[in-house]
Amino acid sequence: MDPLLADETATVNLGLPWQEGFAGLGPAFYTELAPTPLAAPALVSLNEPLARDLGLDPAQLASPPGVAALTGNVLFEGGRPLASVYSGHQFGVWAGQLGDGRAILLGEVQTPLGPQELQLKGSGRTPYSRMGDGRAVLRSSIREYLGSEAMQGLGVPTTRALSVTGSPQPVRREEIETAAVVLRVAPSFIRFGHFEHFSSREQYGELRQLADYVIDRYYPACRGCERLAGNPYANLLEQVSERTAALMAQWQAVGFCHGVMNTDNMSILGLTIDYGPFQYLDAFVPNHICNHSDESGRYAYNRQPNVAHWNLFCLGQALLPLVEDQELALAALESYKTVFPREMEGRMRAKLGLQGEQEADRQLIEDVLQLLAADRVDYPIFWRRLSRYVAGAPAEEVRDLFLARERIDGWLRQYDERLPDDRNTAARRMLATNPKYVLRNHLCELAIRQAKLNDFSAVEALLRLVRAPFDEHPEHEDMAGFPPDWASHIEISCSS
């Protein structure tokens, strides 16, 4: 048999019950098709803790049949692979029909974590690939794998990644690279763009079917809720708005830049989804643009909260045929303006180790962010050093980060006055809030360079760190330091 072709009769039994899930919506929502096999697949990394949490056997997944299934060369027994169709706004412009151009949903399984969808990314062309090849490369797959687990380690809602498999099969990007596949896990991969698709085509029956599915599966409290005139679709819009607002506060607090916040990259469950040109801030530059393709800076770090709100308006417009009242839809979106600043202030108070709320806290937060921006201070290192300062380390550890010593000294005096008497408790909370390790671009780049030489040890080391980013890990102290000068020249784009 041709080694590039899968054995269509072969299957791997995960030992978990499959259920219909998204596939039950019907053929208007997807195209059923099998993944396209890759030549000579090999395991790059397996997320064994996640496998065990899902009730899966890591040894089975790491076996040759398991690796073949993780790559899409054979199917999981009971799965029903499909590519879903959606539309969306990309960089603020209506792009029309999009869809899973290089992803295939294998199906939904019942796990100890609840129902979870399994999806392959990089598994070949689909009817929605447009001009693409349907593939992912090793570089981008490692970034997605580590990126999603880094967010999980930080406590930020996210899709997960179970595995990366690689192949020597060539893929053309800016240069010739090798192919890889990520197996992603989430309760649902439904996006704002799924709703935009059916609304834009005036397929209101399918739009209602999709909204009812999402409400019944993930937001059942929207039915029977008296808020917003008891309208379940307005309640859905409000709930998604509030989850998205909370997610944006978490992104901003940890210094995360998504890089491509198109409406088709926004999760209906408020999860971080689609790790492409993402980055964690090194220097605190509020208008930092992490996506080399984003020439207008639409998705700069400080614009993310407003872009999320704009995307929610697009979702609201898509749901309007169901809500049937524009004022009601606008009222559903209003909660974003309340939830985001409240969540943001709460996250920043936690980073500062403050208990309770005081009127002056907002100014204290704004002042320190202005100081960080003025001197382009390393964002994660500042917060970790401030945590150590509260624990009793010398103030010089913080002061040495700033050129404007007098200004930071003045801020520290105000901060000391606001800290609780029990500084040890505050410090413990801060050290559990402000990570020592973040997935910086240069760390990813170094791991990718080794992986291209078939050495995956740096990937595994980073995976261990991002799973427990608040721990000390003294053996990896170098990974918690300042980025090298060359890190600022790393370019990441929509192909990353």
Quick recap of the structure?
Belongs to the SELO family. The chain is α+β, with helices and mostly antiparallel strands.
Radius of gyration: 23 Å
Q: Proportion of β residues?
A: 5-15%
Helical content (DSSP H or I, runs of 4+) = 40-55%
Instruction: Count up the domains.
Output: 4
The total count of helices amounts to: 16
How many DSSP E strands?
15
Q: pLDDT below 50 for ≥5 consecutive residues: which ranges? A: 1-6
| Largest sheet geometry | 7 strands, antiparallel
Look at the helices and sheets and give the structural class: alpha+beta
What gap, in angstroms, lies between the N and C termini? 34 Å
User: What do the pLDDT scores average to?
Assistant: 95
- Overall body shape: globular
Task: Write up what this structure looks like.
The protein has 496 residues and is α+β, with helices and mostly antiparallel strands. It has 4 domains: 11-189, no CATH class; 193-350, no CATH class; 354-431, no CATH class; 441-489, no CATH class. Helices cover 41% and strands 15% of the residues. The chain has 16 helices and 15 strands. The protein has helices spanning 48-53, 58-62, 64-71, 138-154, 192-200, 204-218, 232-254, 304-323, 326-352, 361-374, 379-390, 396-399, 405-418, 423-431, 441-451, 457-467, and strands at 11-12, 18-19, 30-32, 42-46, 75-76, 82-84, 87-90, 93-97, 103-111, 114-121, 136-137, 160-172, 176-186, 256-257, 279-280. Strands 2, 4, 9, 10, 11, 12 and 13 form a 7-stranded antiparallel β-sheet that branches. β9 and β10 form a beta hairpin. α5 packs antiparallel against α6. Mean pLDDT is 95; it is low at 1-6.
